[in-house]
Structure formats: structure tokens, C-alpha cells
């Protein structure tokens, strides 16, 4: 993939440039979502419901963007969302993403479906970050992945629970995204489950998930996982506050409010809309992470003001990887961090703890002249 040096490290610019660089089926696979993709749009549009209210005459010479998650202090309330097969967009794959994110001081959540094994990527950055786990029907595989993640030094196990089957990715069907030759799930190569099915028509990912992942997953399995894992368990893919409550009762250490970037269910509630009720259900002591639609610092501010401890960023990191490899990822995340710091200074908030409801005004109550076009 050629460098796109003229591209500014903003997510829209990166996406436009990546669109020009990537094969159309790969671009569609990343950008796309379930059904008519209304959830993908809603995940972004939900942020437009808010305006920010700056506070002045505050000494903001220094602001502190750091947050604590599982005894580790992160320089910024940011993580890279788990995404499979980075080699689809850049030959250096997760190697480049891990190095770039680490250089920007941001931890990455390594996907089960990575194109490089966790034992290779974990030592690349200054810190291994978290490991995202899909639960296999074959519990010996699941258990082995859990042990390997602990041995590789990850801080937490992030179990994805919103994928009993793969969502209806219509763009993939239209583009005939089978991509069997390009997709290697390196973490699974030691097991029989490492072999992807031979699918000529339809999605190889969808067939794989139907064959290997456990659609019968329940709270009892989460309890088993929490007992089985020496690492704290974060549950990814929760929207309903009652589910969040059940996860924490089963021993989960944190919850990630997510609809899988709109890739699972059309017309789903957006993750930002779902966030406040989950925060309220869990109280201040359980970290809640917002995943989906984060594109710039104002989005991070809104999510934190609504109670998220941190946020994850998905697609823009892959666009940055496609455009500039490790350097591209570093530039994008470093810019996001700087932008957050600057935003907090202009907002008159010296620490992330000061980003609360006082920062927000609901757009509908402030906009008397401009009507939203949504
Ligand atoms: C190409 C791609 C691959 C993904 N692979 C995974 C995965 O392996 N495991 C997982 O839990 N989520 C996966 N996701 C979902 C992301 O972790 C995250 O929920 C979503 O991208 C967040 O939305 P955003 O892209 O708007 O930031 C993937 C998303 C994309 C775009």
C-alpha cells in the first residue's frame, strides 16, 4: 500500500484516502455494517444530540487525560478496538498497528481473529494491552486461548458476546467478499479450528462463525470464564442495562457498551444512546467503556461526560494503517490525544473526572434556529 502523505490524520480524510487505496471489497468489509447500515449511521449521529459548554477562568496550564483501568494508568482514555485481520489493509498487519498505537501511548485490544499470533504482537509495544476472546464451541480451544493470553502478559480478557451468528453484511455479499486466501486467523492455527471453510459463494467469516463459535453462550458460560481466567474479564457487546448488571454479578470487571460498530443488527440502539442507562445500572465503581462511532476528541468528551471511563476506536485505526502503516496509526492516535488535551483546556476541565454532565447541553434544547437534518 502506498503512503498517502498529503492526508491529514483526521478520520474522514483517512477514510477517503483508504477508499482509494484498498480493494473495494476490503473497503466494504471494513466500512460496512448489518442490513441497511442504519446502526452504523446512528452510532455517529447520536453524538450530534449534544453540544459542549466551556467553562472559563480556570487555570488549564496543565490538564491530565489519564485514567485507571485494572490497576494500570493509561495516558489517555483510549484503546484501539479489537479488529480481525489487519493484514487485509497493510502487509505489516498487527505488527504495524501495535507499534504505532504503542508509540502514541495507546493500548490495543488484540483480536482473536488477528492475522498475527498474540505471542508475536504482545511484546511489540511498550505494553501488551488486552486480548479479545471469541468463545469457541470447543471449550478446550477457548481455555487454551485464555491461558495463552495470560501467559502473553495481557491486562484483561475482553469477551465478545454480541456475535452468536454474524450479522447480515449485505455489502460483503454484494462485493462477494470471500477473501479466503487473504484471511489467516493466526491465533487459531494450532487447532483444527484454524482452518477457514472453503466458501465459494457467501461469506467465509459468516460460515466460520456458524461452525466454530458458540451460539448457545449464556451467563453460566460467563461465570465459567470468569472462574477459568486469571485475568479480569471485560464483556464487550452489552447494550441492555439488565445484561450489564448480570455480567457484573457473574464476576465481570468491566463492561463495554457496543453494538459491534453496527455490524450485527440493523436499527440497533446506538452505543452512545445505550451508555447512560448502563452507567446508572452499574454505579461509579465498575468501568464502562464506550465502543462505536468515536472519530474525534469531541466524541471522547461526550462519551466520558455520559459516564464512560474510556472509549475504543475502531475503523479509523484501520484507515490510518492502510494509509501509512505504523506511522499512520501513530499520527492518528497522537493527534487524537493532543486534540483531547486541547479540548479539555478550552472546556476548562483539568482532569477527565471533571468531564461530567455539566459539560453537556442537549442539542434539541439549545437549537432553536438550526433544526437537525436527521
Ligand atoms: C474490520 C473489522 C473487524 C472487526 N473484528 C472484530 C473482532 O475480531 N472482534 C470483536 O470483538 N470486534 C470486532 N470488530 C468490532 C470492533 O471491535 C468495534 O466494536 C467497532 O469497530 C467499533 O466501531 P467504530 O468502528 O465505529 O469505532 C471489528 C470491526 C471491524 C470494522
Please tell me about this protein's structure.
This protein is α/β, with parallel strands linked by helices. Helices cover 39% and strands 12% of the residues. The chain contains 14 helices and twelve strands. It has helices at residues 11-21, 24-31, 38-45, 93-103, 118-121, 139-151, 170-174, 204-212, 219-228, 241-249, 271-282, 297-305, 315-347, 363-366; strands at residues 50-52, 67-69, 72-74, 78-80, 107-110, 130-133, 157-160, 233-238, 254-257, 288-291, 310-313, 360-362. The chain has an eight-stranded parallel β-barrel, surrounded by six helices. Helix 6 links the parallel strand 6 and strand 7. Helix 1 runs antiparallel to helix 13 (315-347), helix 4 (93-103) runs parallel beside helix 13 and helix 10 crosses helix 11 (271-282). The longest helix is centred in the last third of the chain and has 33 residues, at 315-347. The chain is globular, with a radius of gyration of 20 Å. 51% of the residues are buried. The mean pLDDT is 93. Flavin mononucleotide (FMN) binds next to loops. Residues 30, 43, 81-84, 111, 113, 132, 160, 236, 258, 260-261, 291-294, 313-315 line the site of flavin mononucleotide.
Amino acid at each position: 500500500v502506498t503512503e498517502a502523505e498529503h492526508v491529514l490524520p483526521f478520520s474522514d480524510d483517512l477514510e477517503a484516502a483508504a477508499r482509494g487505496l484498498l480493494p473495494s471489497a476490503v473497503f466494504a468489509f471494513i466500512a460496512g455494517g448489518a442490513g441497511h447500515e442504519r446502526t452504523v449511521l446512528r452510532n455517529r449521529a447520536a453524538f450530534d444530540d449534544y453540544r459542549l459548554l466551556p467553562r472559563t477562568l480556570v487555570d488549564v496550564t496543565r490538564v491530565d487525560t489519564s485514567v485507571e483501568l485494572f490497576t494500570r494508568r493509561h495516558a489517555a482514555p483510549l484503546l484501539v478496538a479489537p479488529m480481525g485481520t489487519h493484514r487485509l489493509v497493510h502487509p505489516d498487519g498487527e505488527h504495524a498497528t501495535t507499534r504505532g498505537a504503542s508509540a502514541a501511548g495507546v493500548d490495543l485490544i488484540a483480536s482473536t481473529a488477528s492475522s498475527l499470533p498474540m505471542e508475536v504482537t504482545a511484546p511489540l509495544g511498550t505494553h501488551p494491552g488486552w486480548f479479545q476472546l471469541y468463545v469457541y464451541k470447543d471449550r478446550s480451544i477457548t481455555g487454551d486461548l485464555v491461558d495463552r493470553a495470560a501467559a502473553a502478559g495481557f491486562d484483561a480478557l475482553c469477551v465478545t458476546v454480541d456475535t452468536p451468528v454474524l450479522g447480515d453484511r449485505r455489502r460483503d455479499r454484494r462485493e462477494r467478499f470471500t477473501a479466503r486466501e487473504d484471511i489467516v486467523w493466526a491465533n487459531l492455527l494450532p487447532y483444527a479450528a484454524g482452518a477457514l471453510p472453503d466458501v465459494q459463494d457467501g461469506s467465509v467469516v459468516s460460515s466460520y462463525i456458524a461452525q466454530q463459535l458458540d451460539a448457545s453462550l449464556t451467563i453460566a458460560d460467563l461465570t465459567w470464564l470468569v472462574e477459568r481466567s486469571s485475568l479480569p474479564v471485560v464483556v464487550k457487546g452489552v447494550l441492555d442495562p439488565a445484561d450489564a448488571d448480570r455480567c457484573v454479578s457473574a464476576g465481570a470487571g468491566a463492561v463495554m457498551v457496543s453494538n459491534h460498530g453496527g455490524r450485527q443488527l440493523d436499527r440497533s440502539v446506538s452505543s452512545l444512546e445505550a451508555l447512560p442507562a448502563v452507567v446508572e445500572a452499574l454505579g461509579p465503581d465498575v468501568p464502562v467503556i464506550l465502543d462505536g462511532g468515536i472519530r474525534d476528541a469531541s466524541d471522547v468528551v461526550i462519551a466520558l461526560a455520559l459516564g464512560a471511563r474510556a472509549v475504543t476506536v475502531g475503523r479509523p485505526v484501520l484507515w490510518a494503517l492502510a494509509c501509512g502503516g505504523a506511522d499512520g496509526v501513530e499520527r492518528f492516535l497522537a493527534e487524537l490525544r493532543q486534540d483531547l488535551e486541547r479540548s479539555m483546556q478550552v472546556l476548562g476541565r483539568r482532569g477527565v473526572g471533571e468531564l461530567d454532565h455539566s459539560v453537556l447541553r442537549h442539542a434539541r434544547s439549545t437549537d432553536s434556529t438550526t433544526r437537525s437534518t436527521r
